[in-house]
From TrEMBL:
This is Aconitase X catalytic domain-containing protein. The keyword Magnesium does not apply. Keywords: Iron, Lyase. It comes from Flavonifractor hominis. Residues 1-412 form the Phosphomevalonate dehydratase large subunit-like domain. The lineage of its organism: Bacteria, Bacillati, Bacillota, Clostridia, Eubacteriales. It holds the Pfam family AcnX. InterPro entries: Aconitase_4Fe-4S_dom, PMDh-L-like_dom.
Length: 423
């Protein structure tokens, strides 16, 4: 790799051991990828959350020691100091207020709070969400970022036109300490061009429709760059959020184009950038295939867990849930959980939505991702969700049965205890 004088100085240890070890990680990473250089970033989103088993295995009570070993692969522990560039923590593996409803303990809660204090100390903003763009971290078009979390990556690459690959804990931690990330993949113009042209030949009108389209696109296109045509109605932000999350979980998509809607291209020709694409169609048969695949692990229609908020819900989505449950009651024995970022929850409290949902028997949770933390109610066996991503992951991780449908169908399942959704 070709390094600047500044980068060589970091690699030589002139900015301390932490920066030196971080730069070593980035150089090895870049060389493995075939990157010729690094690029500056001032927007990093990563994962610096410790589990008690990791602490015990590392025989340490220090977050500095744990993450210098775990995330930077340093045999010599170091103090992090403060991160060099603006950085945030993505979602975590537990809900700090309702942890007892799952399998977490008081020991987990204490470790979590200490972890939050440490993040603040080193300058990492504890946004604790997979949707930081909903709570203040909104990259601009062309901005080079270093983000983890598949649904966040595909959103900012596509909808906002920022530039990032789906990074890992090691590369994002190193980027926090150096302000650098390898220049490859979706940082480069040539890799952002469309590879598959998909004609959408059936109406895509609801969030449920967008989830099914995303799941099919991910399964078929895998990790390439789809270009969609035939979208007749302008989607709202949350529809694109759920589309990208389903596409990323089903196949690893990190970038897509809807010419005239997403950021990088106004036309199909601009999106393709001279590529000769594979041409496909998404019609009623493909939609049904995606629906049946997402619901293939469900046999029992007696629902005991309804999960909404993957990716984390926006304030508009929380408002819709409050409207649907107001004056109704969640059936006894059914856990009704809605996941949001902390700041969205605060706003939902001010708007009165949390009070409505709680009066109905539901809970509005923060900071956590059920799939990441396998965070679900004790003894839950059958889940209903409006998230293609969650319907894909949680059954595989925990063995729970799952039903995918609209938010309206999920609320009905919560109230009746019975899944009655259909395509």
């Amino acid at each position: 790799m070709i390094l600047t004088d500044e980068e060589k100085a970091m690699l030589d240890g002139q900015e301390g051991l932490a920066v030196q070890k971080a730069m070593e990680i980035l150089v090895h990473y870049g060389e493995a990828l075939g990157a010729e250089r690094l690029v500056d970033t001032r927007n990093v989103g990563g994962y610096l959350i410790a589990r008690k088993d990791q602490m015990k295995q590392a025989n340490t009570d220090s977050f500095d020691t744990l993450f210098s070993q775990l995330n930077i692969d340093s045999d010599e522990p170091f103090e992090f100091g403060r991160v060099k560039v603006p950085s945030c923590q993505f979602e975590t593996d537990m809900e700090p207020d309702y942890y007892r409803l799952s399998d977490r303990t008081e020991e987990d809660k204490i470790l979590y709070e200490r972890n939050m204090d440490w993040l603040r100390k080193i300058g990492v903003k504890p946004m604790c969400t997979c949707t930081p763009y909903q709570v203040g971290n909104v990259p601009v078009r062309g901005e080079h970022c270093a983000w983890m979390e598949s649904s966040a990556v595909v959103y900012i690459n596509s909808v906002l036109g920022a530039r990032t690959n789906c990074e890992g804990t090691e590369s994002t931690t190193a980027a926090m300490l150096t302000g650098k990330i390898p220049y490859w993949g979706y940082h480069c113009d040539e890799h952002r061009r469309g590879t598959h042209l998909i004609r959408v030949e059936t109406p895509v009108l609801t969030q449920k429709d967008w989830g099914l389209l995303g799941y099919w696109v991910g399964k078929i296109v895998q990790d390439k760059v789809p270009v969609l045509t035939g979208i007749d109605r302008l989607p709202v932000r949350d529809m694109l959020k759920h589309f990208g999350a389903a596409a990323a979980s089903a196949g690893g998509i990190e970038m897509y184009h809807i010419p005239g809607i997403t950021a990088d291209a106004h036309t199909v020709e601009e999106a393709l950038g001279g590529n000769h694409p594979v041409e496909l169609k998404f019609g009623p048969e493909e939609k049904r295939w995606a629906y049946e695949l997402l619901n293939s692990c469900g046999t029992n229609t007696d629902v005991d867990f309804v999960m909404l908020g993957c990716p984390h819900y926006s304030i508009d989505q929380v408002e819709e849930v409050a409207r649907l449950v107001e004056g109704r009651h969640i059936k006894d024995g059914v856990a009704f959980w809605v996941f949001v970022p902390q700041s969205i929850r605060d706003l939902a409290v001010r708007c009165g939505y949390v009070d409505i949902i709680e009066k109905a028997g539901g809970l509005v949770m923060r900071d956590c991702c059920p799939a990441l933390g396998q965070f679900k109610p004790k003894g839950a066996h059958v889940m209903a969700t409006d998230s293609g991503k969650q319907a894909h992951y949680l059954p595989n991780f925990t063995g729970i049965e799952s039903w995918y449908g609209s938010v309206e169908e999920c609320v009905e399942a919560a109230v009746t205890g019975h899944w009655g959704g259909e395509l």
